[in-house]
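[09:14] KT: can someone run the structure on this one? pasting the chain below
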Amino acid sequence: MIQLPEVIKNAVEALTRLPGVGEKTAFRMVMNMTNWKATELTTVSSALSSLQYLKICQQCGMFADENLCSICSSEGRQSIKCICIVENASDLMAIEKSGHFKGVYHILGGVLNPLLGVGPDELKMDELREKIIKREIQDVILAVNPSVEGDATCSYLKSILPTSVMVDRIGFGIPIGGSLEYLDPMTITKALENRKRF
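[09:31] RB: done, structure tokens below
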């Protein structure tokens, strides 16, 4: 059997670190890249290497070019006094893509999970509470995924926030275009719990 050069092995191994990319897919990618021009390889490697210099917004935790992201630096969004709390940057981008939410965000960086050693201190929940009080936030939207850990996180957050702050959780249930017969019991339960008057 042929021995591949270490350069190819290392490139395949590096690509398998990406989610959803197995060894075969990584190998196909590397084989494709061996046909690229040197300038194309340099451009891609330079773009990936520059990720190490990526900044994090000091207010919400989103990726940014400066100390504040474009949302947190917007006076119009700051004046709304509404904050949406999400687990990660991908969740923030999904909500932002809808174009419906006009306030600011806060990225938790995960959910409470005592078995993995993730408690309120690791998620800096006291700092979040202080931020909400200091900025006189009136509405908090908990956009945390539905799970045992997500539910516990939302319950904990609600318990530490002042009673003057309105706390809502996003609705969960049947997706647009979904069919009841194909949904699991938990999804149907959540849909019934989150029903609205018609």
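[09:33] KT: thanks! The longest helix spans residues 148-160.
[09:34] RB: yep, looked fine to me
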